[in-house]
Amino acid sequence: MHKPVLIKEVLEYLNPQKGENFVDCTFGFGGHSLAILKKNKPNGKVLGIDFEKSSLEEDRLILVNGNFADLKKIVEKNDFYPINGILLDLGLSSWHFDKSNRGFSFKGEEPLDMRLNSESELTAEEIINEWSEEELIRIFEEYGEERYSKSIAKSICRNRTTKKIGNTSQLREIIRQSIPGGYKHNRINFATKIFQAIRIAVNDELNNLIKTLPQALSLLKPKGRLVVISFHSLEDRIVKNFFKDEFKKGNLEILTKKPIIPSKEEIIFNPRSRSAKLRVIKKI
Ligand SMILES: C[S@@+](CC[C@H](N)C(=O)[O-])C[C@H]1O[C@@H](n2cnc3c(N)ncnc32)[C@H](O)[C@@H]1O
């Protein structure tokens, strides 16, 4: 089961009241949504969106299988107004890492897939085996902020000339061989940043976020709250800058001067929460 991150803080900021409506753009296993539904009963609703299909059923819950970048269209189609709060809990659920067998985790031997939306065409395998060395360097630098992007990209291109790179353990081994020894003993695993970069590219994650934030702000009713939980600095920067720009235009009030991070207790209980940052705005 996915443990919802920063649940207490999300409820505090969304502050769901009887009859209010919320959009959960990253429904996942419904942890946040179910907690909201307990608060906005008996007639408040939640519109939940996710790339993954869900089997959860609840009278006041509308589930849509889709991309949150289509937020406005989804809200219009479901005539889901007025909206008191919107939540984006970005990234992947623990199910994706542990159970999906789509190659998100660098630990085992899984196919190089990494698609969140199994209907989309681009896979990690295509990126690794077909993209040019320059393109690989670009995504490793831009989306992974990886120090050894050049030597890793070079080594991928050399290896794939003899044999297609077919699974995550082959990729992990190539990464391991292309970086200096000391780096392998860093606190974070040596393959983390490259796997992150490929995943972001496969799912166009940063562009989806960039497209969604303005839609979310315009859909909220005045005084409505937008809560965003991000898991790495690239996402957090996009959120922070969007909030800052819209604040300067007088469109919102920033409720979290600094991002909120999980307590020590939460990190022990749920280690995946350790990199979470939560930012909240209130529409004017
Ligand atoms: C961290 S999980 C959310 C967990 C959820 N809050 C819970 O309590 O169970 C992020 C979810 O967002 C989904 N997701 C990521 N990008 C998406 C996108 N562009 N459109 C729709 N869903 C997306 C993933 O499939 C994943 O289920």
Summed up, the domain count is 2
Q: Report on the biggest sheet.
A: 7 strands, mixed
Low-confidence stretches: none
Going by CATH, what is the homologous superfamily of the largest domain?
Vaccinia Virus protein VP39
Stated plainly, the CATH topology of the largest domain is called Rossmann fold
Q: How would you classify the quaternary structure?
A: single chain
The number of E-state strands comes to: 7
| End-to-end C-alpha gap | 37 Å
Strand order of the largest sheet: 3-2-1-4-5-7-6
The average pLDDT value, as a whole number, equals 96
Give the number of helices: 12
List the ions, cofactors and other small molecules found in this model.
S-adenosylmethionine
Topology readout:
Blueprint: H1 7-14, E1 22-24, H2 31-39, E2 46-50, E3 61-65, H3 71-77, E4 83-89, H4 94-98, H5 124-130, H6 133-144, H7 149-162, H8 168-177, H9 192-203, H10 205-219, E5 220-230, H11 233-248, E6 252-254, H12 264-269, E7 277-283
Parallel strand pairs: 1-2, 1-4, 2-3, 4-5
Antiparallel strand pairs: 5-7, 6-7
The protein binds S-adenosylmethionine.
